[in-house]
């Protein structure tokens, strides 16, 4: 599919043909039963015991079962709400800032959220892309290139990390704390003071669910207050992040791009590779500077299919370089001539160029 902005025609990946059956929406089960067992001292195997206590969720099977990449089967849905896939617990963020009446579908991995949109099981996906303390989520940059989705919006959320535990547990009793590696890094000072062992999990909400399901009193989680509410855990301490100004940026992904406008501030995200030569990266960045376009993000990722480039120079011998993909966010709409001219100029020396999306900016 090609979309023409002024004189420049940009290639967007076209969605593959889908059968009528595949286009049926997937009704996500909220009551899937899963057996949880734990080994208790003495070597006895028994069903997981849910600790009785104030606010503790007694039936974890009634909570949403995360959608996995291997479990993307479609079934009929008669609902009219926008269905949004997510991999971390950001329900309130979605309701307040993105889709007030959306139906949320949890996914156990980032890639499962991408696939859910591609297979028409959900309408949108909301996934983290960078954090003001921990930096970029590299996995999602790689998935943006691998999958044929478009960025249609962004949402910025101020992060408030909480230390969670089973009801009645004091934080001094904890011996290990689970969470996403970035969340653990962002709370390093507090966790060092407690002297706990840090254990990585797929995401912070998943860590809270593990603490609730296993029922070990010496295990806590770094997650949101919303996770504590859902899984029936106590908040042992709030705002444990090292930096109070901790913001995570999320991208909203869809199957089709939105039509760019000029009625509000827009941002455009692109990815490209460059031809060999001296100063080519300088030239690539200069096409934006020459037209007064501000770059808000620059990220480089190695090309996995072509990680190394060997250059044979008769005067200096053979040299080996890393070959990179460059991701850039710039503050201009593709409806503006200056953005069209900039990408037209960039195409002159870029081996590959793809517009990932043009979307309204979220100003926190």
UniProtKB/TrEMBL annotation:
One of its GO terms (biological process) is L-phenylalanine biosynthetic process. It is found in: Plastid, Chloroplast stroma. CDD domains: ACT_CM-PDT, PBP2_Ct-PDT_like. SUPFAM superfamilies: ACT-like, Periplasmic binding protein-like II. Its main location: plastid. Residues 71-255 form the Prephenate dehydratase domain. Keywords: Amino-acid biosynthesis, Aromatic amino acid biosynthesis, Chloroplast, Lyase, Phenylalanine biosynthesis, Plastid, Transit peptide. Residues 269-360 form the ACT domain. It catalyses: L-arogenate + H(+) = L-phenylalanine + CO2 + H2O. Pathway: Amino-acid biosynthesis; L-phenylalanine biosynthesis; L-phenylalanine from L-arogenate: step 1/1. Its EC number is 4.2.1.91. GO terms for cellular component: chloroplast stroma. Pfam families: PDT. Signal peptide: none annotated. One of its GO terms (molecular function) is arogenate dehydratase activity. It comes from the Eukaryota. Converts the prephenate produced from the shikimate-chorismate pathway into phenylalanine. This is Arogenate dehydratase. It comes from Forsythia ovata.
